[in-house]
Please model this.
Amino acid sequence: MSSIHAKISGVGKYLPEYVLTNKELETMVETNDEWIKSRTGISERRILKGDNLGTSYMAERAATAALEDAGLEADEIDIIIVATVTPDYLFPATACLVQKSIGASNAYAFDLSAACSGFLFALTTGGNFIESGRAMKVLIIGADKMSSIVDYTDRTTCILFGDAAAAVVLEATEEETGIIDYIHHTEGDEDFMLYQPAGGSVQPATKESVENKLHYLRQDGRVVFRKATEGMADVSLDIMKKNNLAPEEVAWLVPHQANLRIIDATARRMGIDKDNVMINIDKYGNTTSATIPLCLVDWKDQLKKGDNLILSAFGGGLTWGSIYLKWAI
Model:
């Protein structure tokens, strides 16, 4: 009896037109281009400008591109999952807005919040629906308008983040391709190392919360950097060992693009040559749930059917994980 796998059959992205460079940031906060690049690897990032434009605006366009790449119509999709920490509204879910906008009339839709690990968690959630036989075609979107929760007077965070969306279509297959295995972890962040203080039910919006900038993200950079470096490196090596993969058998490491030093440390731990690591942090910065699917879009023309990919991320929650994926197209 053959088993069902969830394969990626199409990819798509959307990038805002406005480019915020390190040079422009020098005019906003006390920083400089050389310092930002040496510490993070980032040269520029995209920012979504325009009135009443939220995460769904980018997600819709990335979804449409992915459907076109897969050769599918929107009404063929069974489920839509949007990974985001910057939804248009607390409710309705951003995925519901995308479902209506693209005309996916036969799909049900929901958001998933796992910060920078969101795309990985959403991908395995969609994959499990397909492997169980409950769905045949699932649209997974990673999208975040991080500029909406970034304090552009805080030089420790405003240099890091950008806005973007990217999407993949998952389809059922009996071939030995697609999602092969995954490992995910959570460690409840009771110390609030990476969080948005206000806007939830514990501290709803007030005049004081706005004045005190409590609706912007905050992080303990040193602690998060250390935990992210350890977490991504460990879980990436663990998924290789679990599946008996030697470094030379991994065609590509597809890491979350938070910091170039974290990416380099992960590759070294895995024994992966830098030429086999997808890196676009210099162009986009940290787009949270969009980073990994953005890599898949940017490297699509270099991927071959059967390539072994290791996807790896670490994010707020704290959350981290890896996926062993065999490329199918």
